[in-house]
Design a protein that fits this description.
The protein is an alpha/beta fold. It contains five helices and six strands, in the order H-H-E-E-E-H-E-H-E-H-E. Pfam families: STAS.
């Protein structure tokens, strides 16, 4: 279980506590922005990397109550970015509505010519529902940020 957000996290700048892998990558690239409501059961952290790449780090549970907020944020991002990375490594529960939100996000990206990659961290909580429903075949899944490449073919993380 992740700790409650602290005042530094709410300040929307720099690295975000509780997002070790993504914060190491995005913390120096720009400010983090919280997209969720303060008392919601889900945390949505946004990092803008350059003009065209966005990272949406999700923490908590993507259940029926939170799936709409996640979907709205993700679809808004694919409409304005060419590349969206959805980091689900901090997700503790992924309900069917969360799976549907991922599929809808991918379809919205396809409609506007954007790309989506989903970082799973190898989490069984995330992967198992995707495998059982076949959603894993509809998404570009990777274990970690190091597995991603920029749309131009260079390493997304800066590592080659």
């Amino acid at each position: 279980m992740s700790p409650a957000p602290d005042s530094a996290e709410r300040a929307d700048t720099g690295a975000v506590p509780g997002l070790p892998e993504v914060a190491a990558w995005c913390g120096a690239a720009g400010a983090w922005e919280r997209l969720d409501e303060p008392d919601s059961g889900i945390q949505l952290h946004l990092c803008r990397v350059g003009e065209r790449i966005r990272v949406l780090a999700v923490r908590g549970e993507i259940d029926a109550a939170e799936a709409t907020a996640f979907q709205n944020a993700a679809i808004d991002l694919v409409r304005t970015a060419k590349y969206l990375v959805v980091d689900l490594t901090g997700v503790r529960f992924l309900a069917s509505r969360g799976l549907a939100a991922l599929v809808r996000t991918q379809r919205a990206a396809d409609d506007v010519g954007s790309r989506v990659a989903v970082v799973t961290g190898g989490s069984r909580v995330v992967l198992r529902p995707m495998q059982v429903t076949g959603v894993d075949t509809q998404l570009h899944l990777v274990d970690s940020l190091e597995d991603l490449e920029r749309p131009d073919g260079s390493a997304l993380t800066g590592r080659h």
